[in-house]
Structure formats: C-alpha cells, structure tokens
Amino acid sequence: MFDHASFDAHEGVHLFHDAKSGLRAIIAIHSSALGPAAGGCRMWDYETGEDMLKDALRLSQGMSYKNAMADIPLGGGKAVIWGNAKTDKSPELFRAFGRAVDSLQGKYITAEDVGISVSDMQIVREETRYVAGLDEGEAASGDPSPVTAKGVYLGIRETAKRAFGTDDLNGRTIAVQGVGHVGGYTCDHLAEAGANLIITDIDQQALKDVSARTGARIVEPDDIYDAGADIFAPCALGAVVNEQTLDRFKVKAIAGAANNQLVMPEMGELLRRKGILYAPDYVINGGGIINVAAEISGTYSREWVDGKLETLMHTLGEVLDEALSTDKPTNRVADAIARRRIGR
C-alpha cells in the first residue's frame, strides 16, 4: 500500500466486505485538511482488485484537489464498489455500504457518482446521515449532474477563449465522449450555444436521445479520438489521454467532465508540446461538489452555488493563463495551487 504508485500520503484507505450482500468496497480518504472528506461513490466492474485500489487512490486525491480549487470547506475522499451497476445492485448492498460509511463517523461524506443513482443513495441514507446529493431532506438538492454540466460548459468556453481567442462556440465542432447524466446535459448547453457535436457512448439509447435533441453525429467509441473537431470533451471514465490516443487527437483543446483524464501526469507536458490546451479535470468539473457542499452545509442556496461556480471559472482561467505565460503544463500549475491550499 505505502509504496503504491498512486499512494499520496492518504490519511486512510478502508476496505469493506459484506458476504451476505456481496459488497466489496474501498473508501479512500486523501486529506481532511479543509474539512471532512467528501466525494462520490462509484460502482464499476473492475477487472482486478489492483484496478479498484488504483481508482480509489487517484479519485480521492483528485477530490482533495477539486475541493481545494473550488474553495469549499471539504477534504477529499472517494468510495468505489466492485460490481456491475446494471446487474449487481440490491437494497442490501447499499445498506451494507451505508453501514461502512457510518463506521467512519463523519470522516467521509458520500454521494452518487458513476453507476450510482440518487435512489441508491436514498437507501444508503437509511444506515447513515453522511450522505449528500439526495432528493429529500431539509437542504436536499438532488442530482448534482446539472450543476457539474453547467460548470463544464462554462469551462469549455474559458478554454476556447485561450485556444481560439474567443469563447463563442457557434460553429465550433466539439467531440463529446460519454453522454450520460453530465455528458448529456453538457451537450444540451453546447448545442444551445451553436456548437456542432460529435458524440459517442456505449449506451445506445442515450446516444439516440442526445442526438435527437441536439443534432449530434454519432460515431463508434474508438473513432472519437480521430474526430475532426476543435475541442475534445471527455465526459466518461478516465485515462483517455494516453500513449495510444495522444497522436490521434486533431483538436486544439481538451476540456470535459471525466475524472483523471490523463493516464499519467506527464501527459500534460506532452499535450502542451503538441499545442493542445488542457483544462485540468478536477478544476473544470467542480460544479457538482460545490452543489453537494451547499447541501452539506444544511442551508442550500442556489445563489451561493452560482457564485462559487463563477469563482471556479475565474480560477480555471488563472490556471490556463499562468500555464500559457510560463510554458508549463496546465495540470502541473493546477496541482501546485491545490497542494498549497491543502498544506502539502
């Protein structure tokens, strides 16, 4: 564990197994310097336990950075459940996960993420109060995906302003990888702004729905990397900027909702050399956790959320500007700021 490549002085890595429900989960707490660790729970059918652990470690570190850059009083944590989100869910599994969260006594606050719905979190809530992103409750705000998508859309505009000299997206071609909750909402914003969309996903129905309402052109999953687009917006899983895809990109900017988009930090420098402006993922996609933070406070305010989102976009602009003026990769600039904010 302590010599794992993705271990970054994590404060706690907790493994949970419940034989009766089949729960296999990891809750990783990276930092609580700014407040209790908060981050969503992802359900994914990992190939190996090593893949699961790596995901938990990287995602929790990303949440520390994301929450710091969003300037909210939360630390960074993440939960991952090993299983097929379409076939392995059960109320018993989520109740077991709720007990796991509760055993940490507030050190970690969970919410929905990839493969997890608001209704799943409602079941988790039966076992613990350390849950956010719900439809019910005094300060409930529901699914944070629309707020994440709004931030991603605004972040794409901030990135376009630096890459093309204007944030006007009318007539720009944007390749969107993943049209689930966040990706789909992002496509709606982009289409309304006049962008031409190329989309892909493994969910054929989601593709048809988004294409029908936005006019997007559908391509096969692997073809999205070769798309003749201005901007690539990864909105599914991470590690999509890697040795195999780097030379295939024809875009001038990468800006999307996915976490851990770079397979390794060194990819940021390679993108810079290639002339591709990269919006660091944990900065551009921080809208959802801002929404969750408002709910956790107990007094949800949409005005506060919108104000924090505006500040976050200003922060993204500062990261991009510093990177461009110093010839440094954007991810390294963002990392340095985030680590200063959490005292590392």
Key features of this structure:
344 residues; alpha/beta; 2 domains; 6-stranded parallel beta sheet; 15% strand; globular; oxidoreductase; Glu/Leu/Phe/Val/Trp_DH_C; Glu/Leu/Phe/Val/Trp_DH_dimer; oxidoreductase activity, acting on the CH-NH2 group of donors, NAD or NADP as acceptor; nucleotide binding
The CATH class of the largest domain turns out to be Alpha Beta
Shape: globular
Mean pLDDT over all positions: 96
Ends distance: 20 Å
Q: Work out the number of β strands.
A: 12
Order of helices and strands: EEEEHEHEHHEHEHEEEHEHHHH
CATH architecture of the largest domain: 3-Layer(aba) Sandwich
What do you see in this structure?
Belongs to the Glu/Leu/Phe/Val dehydrogenases family. This protein is an alpha/beta fold. The chain contains eleven helices and twelve strands. The protein has helices spanning 49-69, 91-103, 118-124, 145-164, 181-192, 204-214, 267-273, 281-284, 287-296, 302-326, 330-341, and strands spanning 12-18, 23-31, 37-38, 41-44, 75-82, 108-109, 173-177, 196-200, 217-218, 231-234, 253-254, 277-278. The strands form two sheets. Strands 1, 2, 3, 4, 5 and 6 form a six-stranded mixed β-sheet that branches. A six-stranded parallel β-sheet has the order 9-8-7-10-11-12, with helices on both faces. Helix 5 (181-192) runs parallel beside helix 6 (204-214), helix 9 (287-296) runs antiparallel to helix 10 (302-326) and helix 10 (302-326) crosses helix 11 (330-341). The radius of gyration is 19 Å and the shape is globular.
